[in-house]
Amino acid sequence: xxxxxxxxxxxxxxxxxxxxxxxxxxxxxxxxxxxxxxxxxxxxxxxxxxxxxxxxxxxxxxxxxxxxxxxxxxxxxxxxxxxxxxxxxxxxxxxxxxxxxxxxxxxxxxxxxxxxxxxxxxxxxxxxxxxxxxxxxxxxxxxxxxxxxxxxxxxxxxxxxxxxxxxxxxxxxxxxxxxxxxxxxxx
Length: 187
Prior knowledge:
Largest sheet: 9 strands, mixed
CATH architecture: 3-Layer(aba) Sandwich
Helix content: 25-40%
Protein name: UPF0340 protein SAMN02910451_02747
Radius of gyration: 16 Å
Family: Belongs to the UPF0340 family.
Number of domains: 1
Number of strands: 9
Pfam families: DUF436
Distance between the termini: 38 Å
CATH superfamily: Hypothetical protein TT1679
CATH topology: Rossmann fold
Shape: globular
Oligomer: single chain
CATH class: Alpha Beta
């Protein structure tokens, strides 16, 4: 596996999502990532820290440059808790929980890498549906972390490594019915 290519694909994917999603600084971007699926294996069967680090290297600099917070989803063994920077937890009032993600036991490779490489990582049980956009790499099911009206997004990439990706953003709810006029910038 070419990990430099994984980094470039991850960077391209998040860049395209951000261009289309119009996120403001301070928004939350959720990432679910199966390092096994990136390698072409079934989720949870071939945990790989190298592929997780490659995804981190592609995504995090782009988000940091835009002032967007990342939430890294853990696997189901930690109930899809999320690794965030302490700054994110404090800004949004999320509640910290006590667990440290592990690559082969509970959490997964990507959450482990984020916990190791964030400046001041914490684990939160939920971000209360506050994510503004995100990417699901390998079928990790990130939808529960997004605002209530989710819009799927198509970008030029369909996969990172061998893992299929699904991209999404939220939009505000439409109210007012047929007589309402909507702001095109929010659609």
